[in-house]
Amino acid sequence: MKKIMVTGALGQIGTELVIKLRSLYGEEHVVATDICIDESVAATSGPFEILDVTDGKRMLELAKKYRVDTIMHLAAMLSAVAEAKPLVAWNVNMGGLVNALETSRELGLQLFTPSSIGAFGPSTPKDRTPQVTIERPTTMYGVNKVSGELLCDYYFAKFGVDTRGVRFPGLISYVAPPGGGTTDYAVEIYYDAVEKGRYTSFIDKGTYMDMMYMPDALQAIVQLMEADPASLKYRNAYNITAMSIEPEEIAGAIRDYLPNFKLEYSVDPVRQAIAESWPNSIDDTAAREDWGFKTSFDLKKMTADMLKKIERKIERKGKMAQ
User: Is the dihedral of CA 304, 308, 309, 314 positive or negative?
Assistant: First the structure.
C-alpha cells in the first residue's frame, strides 16, 4: 500500500484508521472520504473529499485523481439502523460495495472491506464458530455482509481483484460515538460509568458476543493488507476476535476501578433478537495461522485504557467549555 483512499472515514473505524494509516504511510498518502465533513483529525490532517459511495462515477474520479493503489471501503449502515431501514441499507451497503469493487477492477486496486459476526445467523454453531460454517443471517445487515463476502470472492476469482476482509466482532472505542450497532452497549457502558456512575443496558445479562478493542482492530487491518497474498486461504472473511463477553462481565471489570458503578437493564427487543442470532464466541485460528493475527488487549487491559482515555476526553471538553 502506497496511496490509500478510505470511504466512511468519519465513522467509528474510519476516524481512527485514517490517523493510523497517515502515521504509517504519510499524511498526503491517505485520502479520507465521507458523505459530510467535520472538524475531526481524520478530516483535517490530510486530504479529504466529499463522497457518497452510491455515486460510482465520483468514486472512480477520486481514485484516479489521487492515483490510489488501495481502497479501504468502510462506508455502511450498521445493524440496528439497517434493520429500521432495510431497503436504504441494501442500496448503501451493497451499492457502495459494488462501486468500490468496480473502481478496484477498472484501476487494478487492492480492496479491503469488513464483514462482521452479523454474517452468522441462528443456525450457525454458537460456540467457537468455525471459519467455514453456515451463514444464514436473519437481518438485512447480515444479508449485506454475506452478500459482500460472496461478491468479493467473485471479483477475486473472476477479475483478479485483490480483495481482502475480516469478520469483525463488536468494536469498542473511546474516540468515535456509537453508530447504531447491536454491540454499541459495550461502548456506552464505559462513558456512562465515568459520567453517571450507572448504565442501563439494552442488551440482556448473559448475552455473550465477541468484542475487540479498536487498536487491535486497526492493527489487524494493516496486517492483513500487508500479508503475502499466497498465504490467504479465505481472503475476504477471516474470523477475528479478542474476547467473548456479556454485560455483567464488563460491569465487573469497571468496578475494579469504579466500585460503586451500577448496571441496570431495559432490553431493546430488536437489538436483543439480533444479538441472540449471533455466535457466543468464534474461532479465529485461520487468521492466526495464515497471517499471524494476534491481539494485545483483554477485557481488563481494555477497561483500564478506556476509562483513563474517557476521563481525559471529558476533562478536555470541560476545559474547552470554560
Answer: positive
Tell me the pLDDT tens digit for each residue of 59-96.
Answer: 999 999 999 999 999 999 988 889 999 999 999 999 99
> Which residues does 72 contact at the CB level (< 8 Å), separation at least 6?
4, 5, 6, 7, 14, 17, 21, 111, 112, 113, 221, 225
Domains and CATH numbers, the chain: 4-169+212-239 (3.40.50.720), 171-211+242-279+297-321 (3.90.25)
Residue 52, phi then psi, degrees to nearest 5: -90, 115
Question: Quick check: helix, strand or coil at residue 168?
Answer: strand
pLDDT, tens digit (0-9, with 9 covering 90-100), for 182-194: 888 999 999 999 9
Angle at 201 between CA 125 and CA 249, to 5 degrees: 60
The full length of the chain comes to 322
Name the region of 26 (left: φ>0; alpha: ψ -120 to 50; beta: rest): left
The dihedral through the CA atoms of 23, 27, 33, 34 has a sign that is positive
Neighbours of 143 (CB within 10 A): 22
Q: Per the structure block, which three cell numbers stand in for 241?
A: 476476535
Query: Which CB contacts under 8 angstroms, 24+ apart, belong to 31-38?
Result: 31/3, 31/4, 31/5, 31/6, 31/62, 31/66, 31/68, 32/6, 33/5, 33/6, 33/7, 33/8, 33/9, 33/62, 34/7, 34/8, 34/9, 34/10, 34/75, 35/75, 36/10, 37/10, 38/10
Distance from C-alpha of 232 to C-alpha of 228, rounded to nearest angstrom: 7
The pTM of this model reads 0.93
If phi > 0 it is left, if psi is from -120 to 50 it is alpha, else beta; for residue 55 that is beta
The three-state secondary structure class of 301 is helix
Provide the annotated active-site residues: 141
Written as one string, the DSSP assignment of 121-140 is -TTS-SSSB-SS-----SSH
H-run or E-run covering 270: helix 269-277
